[in-house]
Design goal:
442 residues, alpha/beta, Aspartate Aminotransferase, domain 1, Aspartate Aminotransferase, domain 2, 2 domains, 4-stranded antiparallel beta sheet, 39% helix, 12% strand, binds ligand PL4
């Protein structure tokens, strides 16, 4: 039955570009001018289009996707069973539930506060369950509105910027793709993937992702302390995207500090962060919920606007207005991931598979003499191709090896000359891709 449903599913590309005849009737509604500012397509659908086009040209090619960061490992049984059980109970009068609280079920909010943020002072009332980090980014940008200034890492996950453009925070983009009104904080191997904050202008909001997508770099405790101090001095709000927190290794972070030798998994490990930071996170990449859809945002009670009003109160208003709560079935799965040692071990094993894939990819590029970063604390490997344009390298790798990557420049001008290679695929496919890359790049 499930395969029948999937067979009938409309391919997203079929509905994006319907053939509109120029003489067809049209409305007199003006297009949102901010939509016109957006550059070409959003990065990831663009990659899907290239994938489709390659398959059309090479129908027999065995294409391996190390492109869009979509999980491939099955959801552990203990978690899938919890969702199945919850879903079946919905078919009974006793087990049926309708709308839940917009902020999420309290048992899940509590388990996140206790298990993900032990000793960080996060209360369940500060955790807002969502349908994923992508949607929280959009809701946060709606919360901030058009009148704030923002800073992003360069390169950066494109969701922060594109949502900022849509709500009207920016002017037009220049030729390099930088939008007027956004501060781009260069994060490159040369500065240990951390911006020189003495040269970063003050902005209202700072989007910061660690472990980083796309560079794979996990910020050290010292770097995050610097970031929190910077936000406190400037009266700014950090939006800390911790979607890949479960990939942080237990190793010493090597920053030379005696106070905390592990790379933080949360911004709230840094003293003083509660007054200046929101954290978003997701079940997508540690539990394989990219299709199930579940995430959360933490908005601490101490975080306040210039007028003294709590940010959490407005965020709650946004959540109640534009969202009716995450799927209750998904929330049952989220609880199964985190509430028991069995669930937590199961998701750790899944993360371990992708981390080993990342190690294989790092070793492959390193053995070919390439400059390669990331992979140790992240599912992403960031490879430099000096003097080359990212889209050219992407096209060449695809043409020669049938392996999909993501061109670094898709993440902003600072990604030019790099490609991102994702560890999200089966071990067999990653090994096959590694063999093809070795042959092509040798
Ligand atoms: C593909 C730093 C992937 N269609 O699944 P979510 O909504 O909880 O996670 C979204 C998200 C948020 N923050 C960071 C991320 O990396 C992601 C997911 N990124 C990628 O390949 O970079 C999937 C992207 C998605 C898109 O269009 O963005």
């Amino acid at each position: 039955m499930i395969s029948k449903i999937l067979e009938k599913a409309v391919h997203p590309l079929d509905v994006i570009a319907p053939h509109v005849k120029s003489e067809a009737a049209r409305t007199i509604v003006l297009r949102n001018p901010n939509m016109e500012k957006l550059q070409k397509g959003y990065l990831f659908p663009e990659i899907s289009r290239k994938h489709e086009a390659h398959l059309k040209k090479n129908p027999d090619a065995k294409v391996i996707s190390l492109g869009i960061g979509d999980t491939t490992e099955p959801i552990p049984r203990v978690i899938a069973s919890a969702m199945a059980e919850y879903a079946l109970a919905l078919s009974t009068p006793e087990g049926y539930q309708g709308y839940g609280p917009e902020q999420g079920q309290m048992n899940l909010r509590k388990v996140i506060a206790d298990k993900v943020y032990p000793n960080m002072g996060i209360k369940e009332s500060e955790v807002f369950i969502s349908d994923g980090a992508q949607c929280d980014i959009a809701r946060l940008q709606m919360l901030f509105g058009p009148n704030v200034t923002i800073a992003v890492q360069d390169p950066t996950f494109p969701g922060y910027v594109d949502n900022g453009v849509i709500v009207g925070q920016t002017g037009e983009a220049d030729e390099a793709g930088r939008y007027a009104g956004i501060s781009y904080m260069r994060c490159a191997p040369e500065n240990h993937f951390f911006p020189d904050l003495s040269r970063v202008p003050r902005t209202d909001v700072i989007f910061f992702c660690s472990p980083n997508n796309p560079t794979g770099h996990a910020a050290s405790a010292a770097q995050l302390r610097e970031l929190v101090d910077f936000a406190r001095r400037n009266g700014s709000i950090i939006v800390f995207d911790a979607a890949y927190a479960w990939y942080v290794s237990d190793d010493d972070d090597g920053d030379g500090s005696n106070t905390n030798s592990k790379k933080p998994r949360s911004i709230y490990e840094v003293p003083g962060a509660r007054e200046v930071a929101i954290e978003i996170c997701s079940f997508s990449k540690f539990a394989g919920f990219t299709g199930v859809r579940l995430g959360w945002a933490v908005v601490p009670g101490e975080l306040r606007y210039a007028d003294g009003s709590p940010v959490a109160r407005d965020f709650d208003r946004i959540v109640c207005t534009c969202f009716n709560g995450a799927s209750s079935v998904a929330q049952a799965g989220g609880l199964a991931c985190l509430a028991t040692e069995e669930g937590r071990d199961a998701v750790r094993r899944v993360v371990g598979v992708y981390k080993e894939n990342a190690r294989v990819l790092v070793d492959t590029f390193a053995s070919l003499g390439k400059e390669v970063y990331g992979g140790a604390d992240s599912p992403y490997v960031w490879v430099r191709f000096p003097g080359r344009r990212s889209w050219d390298v992407f096209a060449e790798i695809l043409d020669k090896t049938h392996v999909i990557t993501v061109p670094g420049s898709g993440f902003g001008p600072g990604g030019e000359g790099f490609v991102r290679v994702s560890a999200f695929n089966s071990r067999d496919r990653v090994l096959e891709a590694a063999a093809r890359l070795r042959k092509y790049l040798a």
